[in-house]
Amino acid sequence: MTKAHTEYLTFNTRKRKEMIHITDQVEAIVRRSGIRDGLCFVSPMHITAAVYVNDHESGLIEDISTWLEQLAPENPAYRHHQTGEDNGDAHLKALLLHHETTLPVTDGHLDLGTWQRIFYAEFDGQRPKRLIVKVLGIA
Amino acid sequence: MTKAHTEYLTFNTRKRKEMIHITDQVEAIVRRSGIRDGLCFVSPMHITAAVYVNDHESGLIEDISTWLEQLAPENPAYRHHQTGEDNGDAHLKALLLHHETTLPVTDGHLDLGTWQRIFYAEFDGQRPKRLIVKVLGIA
Amino acid sequence: MTKAHTEYLTFNTRKRKEMIHITDQVEAIVRRSGIRDGLCFVSPMHITAAVYVNDHESGLIEDISTWLEQLAPENPAYRHHQTGEDNGDAHLKALLLHHETTLPVTDGHLDLGTWQRIFYAEFDGQRPKRLIVKVLGIA
Predict the structure, then answer these.
(1) How much is the mean pLDDT over chain C?
(2) Are strands B109-110 and C2-11 parallel, antiparallel or unpaired?
(3) Looking at CA atoms only, how far is residue C115 from chain A in angstroms?
(4) How far is CA A120 from CA A61, B26, C9, in A?
């Protein structure tokens, strides 16, 4: 039987920029969906955040943050700031990491490699922001 | 009932590089699909264009274009140009934004956040180019 | 009838960094799946590799490699290297190209544009690494 299952997560980060490990929460949603084989879509519903898959290692997470700041730096001169915003860099950082990811589900679990972990990358937080997880497949 | 619905859009941009807002066209395809719950795949069928989700704000769109030009500049020295092409930068810009996106469909509509809008990012236009939209889910 | 079909490919690259053309292998999996209409998910199960869609032209492949090295260079100073690793750049390169892609399947084939080809981008190879291909759709 084909099934779709959707849940929304809300995050309110303590720091403006923060990487939050969410593999366990996504895996729990896959379990609750009852879907055995299919795809799991994960995405923030915001334009200054991203989701990415990589290693859960604190040094690397710092490296990623430093690298994003180099490639998409904070800069008062962004044209977007003429609207009163000050988060131009957050939009660019989100584009760089891509705003969504799809993950495979096999035998009722996320079918990830040993070191693949899912992160919510927030670049303009400190307020409630939502993430959508939708599992589509065969129950 | 599981259903798949596919449509192709054609664009012929006036400028060589252009960002085109396509949320309304994708939403109309979702509506015509009759699919209530599932995933909507959107992608150019070309290798010098991308699709991205972000804010529909003209200053930001200029910021994104400027930023892409900094990270993946036009440059006569690309090896690809030895084939007679002159669009090496367009390939790199397309890779940076990723050539496809998937979007969630809930209750028969794109399930996007308030400010999430879909853009077709063309980096070598001024000729007819196609985009595929495929909705897969439960009708 | 809704169907999901999963296969795993293993690669052991000769060079540490290598781009491997895999369109034919993915198309063969789509054929074996028996799925006529749906989506095909492709992703390495590793965090130092990516998958991307672009031109199968050797000059461009060199341009992409050079460009990735500029934007995410090898550098002994990555904090990740304090764990004993030396592949910090490989993680960043993988993030830049995105670790997964989804592709449309129509009439039992990958529904790609004329020049769209699928590449496995390995940045820390010379050992067996796996890639998952999952096709979901209507048989």
Answers:
(1) 98
(2) unpaired
(3) 23
(4) 12, 26, 28
Quick: pLDDT tens for C28-63. 999 999 999 999 999 999 999 999 999 999 999 999
Dump pLDDT digits (tens) for A6-60. 999 999 999 999 999 999 999 999 999 999 999 999 999 999 999 999 999 999 9
Predicted complex ipTM: 0.97
The answer to whether C5 and C35 have CB atoms below 8 angstroms apart is: yes
**B137: which chain A residues are within 8 Å (Cβ-Cβ)?**
4, 136
The CATH number linked to B126 is 2.60.120.460
Does B63 contact A72 at a Cβ distance shorter than 8 Å?
no
Q: In chain B, which residues touch C (CB < 8 A)? A: 2-4, 6, 39, 41, 43-47, 71-72, 78-83, 88, 91-92, 94-96, 98-100, 102, 130, 132, 134, 136
Find the domain containing B115 and state its range.
2-138
Total domain count for chain C?
A: 1
Cα of A136 to nearest chain C Cα, Å? 9
CA dist list (Å): A41 to A106, A133, B104, C112? 14, 6, 8, 22
Q: How far apart are CA C86 and CA A60, in angstroms?
A: 11
Report the predicted TM-score, pTM, of the whole model to 2 decimal places: 0.98
**Structure token pair of residue B3:** 């259903």
